[in-house]
User: Which sequence fits this backbone?
């Protein structure tokens, strides 16, 4: 018997079309920053998940979380080269805090709901 996740995945796959991938690099400024799709991503597209990666050259960890992100309230802390996959449909619900000039990259697979 399929579980809830398998059923939801099957429904989504039956009612969506794959639209490729996205990738965007952010240079951090020392304050809390909201992630986003690249400007080239067509409006109306969503992501199956978002992978956030800390650049290999980063000297300090980057904290990742939601809009409530602080230095003490975060989902994960990424050291240089680390990454996390978050099941969200848009990177704009993910926030990061890191040292000025450090870099992170976010990316994922794009899809469109069929109407």
Assistant:
């Amino acid at each position: 018997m399929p579980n809830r996740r398998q059923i939801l995945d099957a429904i989504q796959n039956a009612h969506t079309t794959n639209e490729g991938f996205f990738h965007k690099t952010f240079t951090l400024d020392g304050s809390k920053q909201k992630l986003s799709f690249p400007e080239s991503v067509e409006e109306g597209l969503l992501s199956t998940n978002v992978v956030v990666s800390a650049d290999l050259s980063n000297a300090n960890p980057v904290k990742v979380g939601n809009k409530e992100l602080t230095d003490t309230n975060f989902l994960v802390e990424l050291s240089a080269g680390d990454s996390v996959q978050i099941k969200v449909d848009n990177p704009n619900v993910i926030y990061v805090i890191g040292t000025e000039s450090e870099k992170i990259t976010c990316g994922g697979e794009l899809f469109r709901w069929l109407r």
Observations:
- The CA atoms of residues 51 and 104 lie 10 Å apart.
